[in-house]
Amino acid sequence: LAAGLRAGELDFILGALRPADYATDLAGEELLIDHLAVVVRARHPWVQRTPLALEMLAGAKWALPRVGAPTRDLLEHALVRRGLPPPDVVLETSDLAVLRGALLESNLLTAISPRQLYYELDAALLQVLPVPLPDTERRIGLTQRVDSRPSPGATLLMAEIRRQCPLLMQDTAAVTGDRAPLQR
Description:
It is a single chain. By secondary structure, this protein is of the alpha+beta class. Helices cover about 30% and strands about 25% of the residues. The chain has helices spanning about 1-5, 70-80, 95-105, 120, 150-175; strands at about 15, 25-35, 35-40, 60-65, 90, 110, 125-130, 135-145. It starts with a helix and ends in an 8-residue tail after the last helix.
């Protein structure tokens, strides 16, 4: 995406922001702070288990993005920092359709932003496990070229995205049970 942005094929990127020193030609605008959660199918055997500890995740089978993807790196670092082994990944995918199908039809776990599976969580097809995932916060926002002048359409779309972010935070918190959604 960054290559497309630099080439002028894209007006902006909405997604995880890179550190400020990542590139001097790109500028990020933080809109919200997101965090990862462990998501499973609603009838997963662990749904009824309480309490759930981070250590339990060490023996689980996972569906995660490829090695080097920001989400996977965050999860792996969070586990390793606590002396746990990296996740046992049996399915590598960043395709949400593949991930949804795998979660609905298996006992796999994933670590993902609940916002990405909002409709499945809202319909109670999937569930967030009440296990903390410390150190998995991500800054989400808009990235643009420093020297760009977005088109009128892109300018309007970015304004609407900025307006919708607080509403998105409230909706997701209601579905996932977050008491205090993280926000900028």
